What we know:
Keywords: Cell projection, Cilium, Flagellum. With about 120 residues, the protein is an all-alpha fold. The chain is built from five helices and no strands.
Amino acid sequence: MSQQPLLAYNQTATPLRTPRAAEYEVIARVTSRLAQAHQQRNENRPELLAALFRNERLWSTLASDVAEPGNSLPVLLRARLFYLYRFTVEHSQRIRAGNGEAGVLIDINRAVMTGLRGQGSDR
């Protein structure tokens, strides 16, 4: 028997990611960068500002998604996520003004990640 067909069967296929897993990965990357920037906020303020911007962009995208009429999430969860978007924008403004810490935004993102993993109390 030829080795060619056997090699094809032995190759591992790239696992398919669910939309939920993809969302988790994006939030994890943004959160990791925000956490690193927060730790180095005194040495590298521009990186903190860039990380805040990326986090706001993430939340803007999430807010747009949950505001769509066809979104299948429960209405209460959609409202909560939209509120978190508004809080994120307001708190980011406070941080830029020197009146806030990024830790609360990191905690929010991590709580959402926990929910996406199916470990939240609402699921």
